Amino acid sequence: MSKIFVDACFGKETPYTPVWMMRQAGRYLPEYMKVRAEAGSFLNLCHDPKKACEVTIQPLDIVGVDAAILFSDILVIPHEMGMDLEFIKGEGPVFHKPIKDEADIDALLGGEEAADKLTYVYDTIKLLKQELPEDKALIGFTGAPWTLATYMIEGKGTKTYNLCKKLIYSNPELMHKLLAKVTQVVKHYMEKQILAGADVVQIFDSWAAALEKQAYFEFSWKYMVEIAEYLKEKYPHIPVIMFPKGIGQYLDDIYGNFDVFGVDWSTPMALAKEKLGDKYVLQGNMEPCRLYSKEKTTACVEKIQEVMGGKRHIFNLGHGILPDVPVENAKHFVDECHRVSKAK
Fold it and tell me: What residues does the Uroporphyrinogen decarboxylase (URO-D) domain cover (predicted)?
């Protein structure tokens, strides 16, 4: 049975435009909070394939999205490379011993050895393939090497990125060494997700906007493309989605062998269509805070549909859904995406 979401990723005609939401398995759902409480901690939940499978499927049943995205976290990669990770309430993820020098990079596990330690992720995917309806696609994912490296160097989320940027401009060779090592792990990690059953994979570059143009293409996009091209060469039937957040002003220089470009909410959809719509299927891009108003949600969905015309497009938010969004509003967004695109 063909999956509408996979067909849409390849730009094929579909009966309607599919929709999913970044962070769709998460804190806005009371059902998720119940399972999270049972797990005891966020990392415990990531490490428990049965519970991770349950929360991955919840948005399909409750909100009606067209694809499931694997429940996990981008930081399981550096964690299994040997970094001590803790999720602290009110502070978020923290690495207690961030990367400071070449010896720290050399001490990290690399390549397939690190990817082999992420068995709980592959086990979750295998379970999901048994549980998911046949017509629903499963999206695997990873953080981009640059986004992962920012956490590894800064030790936690940052607004200034001063430690990573200091490394980029004062010792670029060392930054490239870290990025290359992370890239090799990510290639194997994505490949193992595909072999476990992922139908589509997405590479998230959450901190793309932290870099000026030249630095972005040298220290981030280049590595994302390396991963995408490695996967497309071996698994051409698996769509690859790229989501670099906040680089609308760099669209003229986007290149690479991948299928879908995720458009964030700060980039006008019409601009993305003009620059990239012939080369890639576009995904996005409603401002997530519009979900607080059903009226504003409908207006935005109708506008995006008007721009894209139901062709070479996947509906999504322009970043993740926020924890205090009412579930009925998320459902309204999905219903509206289906309504306007079925009428095309």
Answer: 18-27, 139-155
